[in-house]
Every structure is written in structure tokens, then in C-alpha cells.
Amino acid sequence: MTAEKAKDDVRPVCFMVMPFGKKPVTRAYDGAPAELDNDRLWDLAYRPAIEACGYQPVRADLESTGAIVKDMLNRLKHAPLVVADVSLPNGNVYYELGIRHVAQERNCVQVAANWFSPLFDIQQFRTVTFPLTDGNVTETEATAIRAILEQKINDYRVHKTPYFETVSDKPEEAFEAEARRISQFQAEISEARLLASAEAQKTKAAAIRDTYQEAAEKVPEIAIELLALLRDMIGWQEALAFANRLPQAIRDNPTIEEQAMLAESKLGNPEKAIAVLKELIKKGMPTPERYGLIAGRYKKRYLAAVAARKAKNDDLPGLEESGDLNDAIENYELGMNLDLNEYFCACNLPSLLRTRDQDGDAAKADIVDHLVTAACRRAVDRGSKDPWLQPTLFGAAFRMGDVRNAQKHLIKMAKLPKWMLESTWNDTETWVSQAPTDKQAVLEKLRGQLEQAFRKPKAAENEAGA
User: Fold this and answer.
1) Taking the CB of residue 166, how many other CB atoms lie within 10 A of it?
2) Lowest mean pLDDT: which of 177-186, 355-364, 384-393?
């Protein structure tokens, strides 16, 4: 081989995407043949036209082994030029053309007989068309096709593919309508929480639920927001009913599952909540939140047992009561030790440890209170929006007898849902009883201020803050 001949053979590759063999012509406009011999079209028209344009023509083999698929994908990605024949509605051709559209910005030319009628609307894309009335591809028609292709291939290859021509690099443009819808949803949530009366909040929350129920069944983030709104504005019964109506795929979201189990417990079924949450942990999904929710259910059972015993003027705790107290402490500790920055579990431990009062419990309670404060301050510094931050800081300051800081946090708690304020208040009776005698009077007064905050009617609350 001479040097000149070798130089001529080193040409950029053009990968041809097209069907093989004889294929029936379907979905075509008038003037189409009944059958098309794709191999003659390749041999007589495409291959010589591509060579005339300065490229080495390559067509995929007939086989479809794994190696062939790998070669095909690599050629679609890296070939200097791809020509795709879309005359027939062929699935492989459509697939390969789509890959090339996103693999390279340019150098993809779509060609077709002028009677083609595509499955998908690729007719809107730039297409080199040519007349072809004889499916056996006569020499005369092949010569005419070559002339058209030789004239237009190099002109068409410089244009961007439809993907690069139309798709934006800005995600917000792709989801502009969805973003507006989500923004509207969040605005309605905020509006509901700012309404003056509890009755108005309840009505607005129900309306938002009805409007976005279908969206919640598809998007877990919307379902979570709605669940929290219904919990705070209407109540636990409505929140649980909403969670139970969700499709299982959404219902399985950890946050929704946890809130549903919290609702079960609040509505008098702590045993079910404990069983479900333990099963999730057993499946290898332990979280501080789950351990904390389990511990909270044991704590609720323990407090109920204490109340029942005191009603009978019985001073001696029973075995079940003591067992529930130990189980609550154990699960709060497990959750705390998973992540010391997650203060949910830790903040519940000090009063329970002081109540149990075994060797070392009181000292451990003091350490945990300081740990809780440090974790909360870290969360504040990191810009956390957790609504439990202020109640948690309030509780730590209250238990340590730091009245000034407790009052500061109480002021910031004023706009929280009443159930959160009442939940904190329920614990303050124990905190007061465990405080030094000289602190109990002032802490009792502080406890009264917290009670006033959640018992005060919503409208009056707004007038007071105006």
C-alpha cells in the first residue's frame, strides 16, 4: 500500500444507524413502496454518499450480543458523525438516535424517504429527505439519493441536536410550573399557621388537605408537610387518618411512619407504636428518632401507671411500672448514643434518671442536661428550624434552675402549636418536684406562665402580641 493510499484510508468514522434486510413499510404517507430493501439502500446510496463526504462508513452487525451492544453504544458516543435513517418506525433506530442526541452536541444527521411517518414527532427535527418509490432501490433512484445526501450531510451536521438546542442547564426552568405549585402550597401552609382563630386554622387546613391530597399521594415531601399541618391544626385523629389513606410507597417514608406511630400512641395505642418501630429497627434501620419514639411510648405507659397508683394512694411502684421506666431510659440512651447532636432522646433522660435514682443516675442526669444545651446551641448556630429547639432549651434551663434563660426561651415558644407547649408543660410537674426546695416556688410560677401560653385562646394570643 502506498503512503498516499494509506493516508486516504485514514478517515473519520461515520456510524450509520438503520434497519437491516428487507422490511415491510408501515406508517407511511402516499407514494411509499410496500417493502424496503435496507441493505441495497446501504450499498447503493448511503455507503457511497458517506464516502464521498470524506468519512469511513460503518454499520452495526446484524447480531445483538452484549459485545455488539457495547460497541454500538461507544460508536454512538464517540463517532465523529452519525447518520440515522428514520424512514421506517424502527425501535432500535429511535433508541440509538436518542442516545446520540444527548451524547454529542452536533454531527448527527437524520435522513429519511420523503414518505416517512414517524411514531414519535421527530419530523419536527431537521431531516434530509429524498424520494424513493421502488423498495428494491434502483440504480437511478440510488444515484439521486446519493446526490442529495452528498449535498446536505455536511451542511446538516453542524446543527445542534434537538437535546442541546432546547434543553436548559438550569433545573428551575425545567420544573418552573412545579416550582410555582410547590411555592403556592408552602404559602398556603404558612397562611394557615398565621390565622387568628383555631377554628379558622382548622377550616383552612382541611381545605389545603383536599386541594393537595392527590399531590401528597405522589410526593412524600408534600405528604409530610400536610401531615404536620393536620396534626397541629386539627388533631392526631385526622393526622393518623390522613397517613393511613396514603399509598404504601409514600406511607413507608420514615418520617410519615414515625409520625403515624406517634399519633397511634397519642390516641391510646402505644403498644402498636412500640411494635412497629421495633420492627423497623430490627430491619436494620435504627435512628435516634425511632428509639426516642419507642422510649416515649414506654414513658407514657410509665406515667399512666404512676397516676393510677397515686389514685389508689399506693406508694410502692409495681414491677410493670418500674419496667416501663427502665425501658424508657434504655431506649432514650440508645437513641442518644447513636448521635449526641440529636437532642430529642437526650432531653428526656434527666428527669427519668432522677426519678429512678439508682447509683450514678443523678450525676448522669446533670451531664446529660449540659449535653442537651450544647447540642441545641450547635443546632441554633447551624441555622436549624426545628420547632423543638426552644422547648428543649427551656427544659434544660428549667431543670438546672436557670430561670432567666428558661423565661427567655419561653417567650420564643409562644407561637408553637398548643400540643407542643402542653407536652412540655406535662413534664414540668416532675421537674419542679426534683428541683432544690429553694427553687421550687419560682419554677412553679414559670410553670404557670407556660400553662397560660397554651390555654390562652388563639385570638386573644394575637391581640396580646399586636
Assistant:
1) 8
2) 177-186
Residue 68 confidence (pLDDT): 66
Query: Strand, helix or coil at 24?
Result: strand
Find out whether 192 and 208 touch, Cβ atoms under 8 Å: yes
- Is the distance from CB of 83 to CB of 16 less than 8 angstroms? yes
pLDDT value of position 460: 39
Residue 142 has pLDDT above 80, yes or no: yes
Q: What is the Cα–Cα distance from 56 to 40, expressed in whole angstroms?
A: 18
- Tens of pLDDT, residues 25-71: 988 888 899 999 999 999 999 999 999 999 999 987 544 455 567 88
Question: Alpha-carbon distance 52 to 71, whole Å?
Answer: 25
DSSP H stretches of helix in 29-124: 38-41, 47-52, 66-78, 91-103
DSSP secondary structure, 110-161, as one string: EEEETTB--SSSGGGS-EEEE----TT--HHHHHHHHHHHHHHHHHHTTSPP
Residue type, 76: L
Q: How far apart are CA 41 and CA 34, in angstroms?
A: 15
Which domains does the chain show, CATH number per domain? Answer: 11-166 (3.40.50)
Question: Which amino acid is located at 256 in the chain?
Answer: I
C-alpha cell at 280: 423497623
Torsion of CA 332, 337, 343, 345, to 10 degrees: -10
Query: How does pLDDT run across 150-184, given as a tens digit for each residue?
Result: 999 999 999 998 888 888 777 655 566 666 778 88
Q: Which three cell numbers stand for residue 173?
A: 426552568
Angle between helix 389-399 and helix 418-434 axes, rounded to 10 deg: 10
d(CA 167, CA 163): 6
Q: Which of 40, 54, 42 is nearest to 12 (CA)?
A: 54
Angle between helices 220-233 and 176-194 (to 10 degrees): 10
